[in-house]
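Notes from the 1:1 (GR / supervisor)

We went over the backlog. Supervisor wanted to see one worked example end to end before approving the batch request, so GR pasted a single chain during the call. The sequence is below; no edits were made to it. Supervisor asked that the structure be written out right there so they could see what the output format looks like.
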Amino acid sequence: MVKQERAGRTRQAVLLAAADAFAQVGFEAAGLVDISRRAGVSKGALYFHFVSKQALADGVRAAAGREIGSAALHALRAEGRAVQGLIDFSHELARLLREDVVVRAGVRLGRQGPRPDGGTCGPDTAWRSLTAVVHRLLDRADRAGELRPGADRHACAELLITVVAGQVLLAADQVGRPAPEAVRRLWAAALPALVGPEDCAGYRV
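Structure output shown during the call:
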């Protein structure tokens, strides 16, 4: 059991070190010697857990996908008004993009890294989670009468998914983005497209 725990900690250290390197310099520039040094392990220990840099990239993608998927599941299970759930989910996604090196690395790998090997839970799966949250919460909002009269639910979904995509692109280009204030500004502009003007003040953006 102790041996398994030690192996698990080593694997996690290598994964985090790889994510840090990929997020900072990208897949091509990241070297396995540097990653093993960041993790504080030998190159042999690195290869024991990940047979190649491609395997490391796939591991980081999978971990990023799990983080985003967990946030998506939490948003779907949250109680309260559905539109507020969408707002809260976008803030949580922005926080992950700013603060979680694994998620940031997964985003950068999705844009600039090699294609994942088959079966990897990566950006495509994570993106489906994001779009599913938007559609399901909008459907819930529509059934609850939250959306403004005449609102096109599909057009609203396209708008919000585009906003989410913008958050991801900003995060890939610059550390520390998207800032909380930027997310609030986006919602201040987008919320009137979803709910009536008299209802906007009832939501925390």
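Supervisor's comment: The first helix runs from residue 2 to 29.
Batch request approved.
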